Amino acid sequence: MYEILRKEEMARGSIIRLDIHSPLIASKAKAGQFVIIRVNEQGERIPLTIADCDAYSGVITIMFQIVGKTTALLRNYKAGDYIKDVVGPLGKPVEMEKIGTVIVVGGGTGIAILHHVTKAVKQAGNSIIGILGARSKEYIIMEEEMAELCDEMVITTDDGSYGTQGFVTTALEKYLQERPDIALVYAIGPIVMMKNVCKLTKKYRVETKVSLNPIMIDGTGMCGGCRVSIDGKTKFCCIDGPDFDGHSVDFDELEKRNNMYLKKEKDALLFSIRQ
Amino acid sequence: MFDYDVKYLKFKTYLNTYCPHCNKSFNVKHKEHDHLLYHGIYQGQKLDLKLSPYLDVFENDSSIEVPKGEVLSDLICPSCQNSLLDPDIKCAECGSPVAKITLSAYAKLLPFYVCLKHGCEWHGLSKADERNIKLKIPRQDMPEQDQKLRVHNFLEVPYGLTTELTQLEAGRCLQCTMPKCVNGCPVNVDIPAFIKCIRADDYDGAAKKIKERNILPAVCGRVCPQEEQCEAHCVLGIKDRPVAIGNLERFVADWAMKMDTIKAPIIKHRMNKKVAVVGSGPGGITVAGDLLQLGYAVTVYEALHEPGGVLVYGIPEFRLPKSIVSFEIDYLRKLGAKIELNTVIGTALTVDDLLKEYDAVYLGVGAGLPKFMGIEGENLCNIFSANEYLTRINLMKAYRFPEYDTPKPEGNKVVVLGGGNVAMDSARNALRCGAGEVTIVYRRSRKELPAREEEVRHAMEEGINFKLLTNPIAFVGNDINWVRGMECIRMELGDPDASGRRLPIPIEGSEFCMETDLVIVAIGTGPNPLIFNSTPNLARNRWGYIEVNPETMETSIPNVYAGGDIVTGSATVISAMGAGRVAANAIHKKLSGE
User: Fold this and answer.
1) pLDDT digit string (tens) for A87-97?
2) Is 0.95 exceeded by the ipTM?
3) Nearest partner of B535 among B298, B367, B349, B369, judged by Cα
4) pTM exceeds 0.90 for this model
5) How far is A5 from chain B (nearest CA, A)?
6) Does A93 touch chain B (CB under 8 A)?
């Protein structure tokens, strides 16, 4: 049993941040790694990327958008409640060296994970340009924390209610055109966003890394549910990833695989509402 | 689970005996038996079972009642009213009158004697007669759930032997002075000794006898490939079918579980040494159990949220009820094991971390990396590894979706690739999840199927199709990337390969298409890289598994031992337990300095 120490709702309650007490994971976790949680005895196992961790206090932070039954269930949990199982840290951590200027692109909930990665990028001594995007002003999260890490930061919203109107790709293209010294682009967000970012950076021949979030069960390489096509080869996201070279990822396949249980998830939600 | 009424197990009931005069069947039953065992309630279902081809449900259901504790002066056949008493013979042990009846339809011509005081058999028979009768008793099969009904539930398929069947079956054992069956068992259970206990109605003694060598009897009685192990060595198997050792083991273990007679021993001698066991599968359980009884402090690390390894995520409920696994895990806890769940060795803690805290480490992590065919379209939706499919259904209980949150994979025309136990389990699971048609596609022939004989038989009985000598070459998807078909090629068998099995060779031009909407790939597993990534100095053999000294199971790192699938590649529950036994002995030898 793992205790929830703090809970915060963001972006009109659509994104939730939980601080969970788990000393072992907190002492070992590095940026880019994830945990698998199971809320209760009937629960499913879902992977969630670690958004922050503090070895000293033994706390890991997870942030997630409410999409399926488990995340909807977690919405009702508050500080002091317990989560049945938390396993981690899983996946390979971000490996970062000093390479110069790095653009970090985050969309929606992806910004939460991006923040952890950006910390690692910063620690390696790189200068950072941040591009954050969301639907509208309310959905931009962790703006201050990101601003602290970035040397330059741009915010885009789909409806123009904050920052510049448009997608992250518009802002990114501008940078790619103006700054030939960009060594790496790190994109974390919805699959569509990562796909479009990669399309763009391929054009400008800039190395791009993405963090993938396929469906998983065990997260230790046992089930193979998280397989993704990287350069036509099958890789397991849980042990070979979750970070991959964005230009090699088959995003269309990933998107379709992630939508495999859309109807089932609705059924599960309806079932819990009726009860 | 085992809610048949065991109160009656102590008494003897002779079922379906025959009158030597009129050949009509009747039962001799104890007066206190108001119902017969197999008319009882089992797993919440009312049963009226057909016992076996030989012990058929009798037409003439008349009974002779033997009052408790009294000596009858005569036994009268309920049909022809003739006396069954044999005036020439008296019970060799107590001198009481003896009735002559015949045992079953099969052994109809053989006289069979019942002492009227004790109801005990064999009295008054010479050793040679006894042996003769034994050889005439046919092997007793376990009663099973109806083929048509069982595909709609997840209840166990065989009900287990009844007491009567157990007695009959145990009576077949010749009690060889040089038993070969014991050598066939990877953990060397003293098989004749436990069968002798059964014959003496001492089920408790039998259970303890098994538990001495095998910490998981209820599991092994169900999932061991006995036909390749103990039963393969049984001398009866030369002319007839061997003694059903596995079924007897299962009966005894279930009896002990129901009666709760196995108590964890109190460990007096403490070793003051700590051992970490990585993985709570059958191998890990054996190592932990052995070392705990030797006085070591043992901590078991498990990556999943439930202990048991393949016993909980892989083997389905209808083959191995999860309540049995949790009973055995509880026993381990009672022995004093500390079980750390949700801890992945390789990421959360490394082997080096463990070595700092423990005197020895045992790696029983299994070979949990599913293999895929590497053919086109393998990542289409609704194509699963058997690991994922079985984990969803067994561990995550997806068959009870939406009560449990994990979605259940669904399909009407299911294809399972592979011919092992895992393929059979997947196919039978799919049937129980509501598939209209399930087909097993295997590239060799029926003879080479690596699955247990019983599993293949069960699968065939349940109506699973077998497309043998067939290999898939590509998968075809629809517009939203869901699998819709599979291209296959027919195979023929060539010369034997390194494993001794004949190598399948594709027949040119024999390609064809199969319709399918759910594919389960059950072609085996490989070594999981997690442990190797964090322990680069761990030597691996040429298949990528851990290299060990076969006599001690010690790896290239001192005080780190390994066994089971991570050393041998995918194998059986009992072979992992055998490796665990070897490692436990070696660990004890090293740590105690003997």
Assistant:
1) 979 988 888 88
2) no
3) B349
4) no
5) 20
6) no
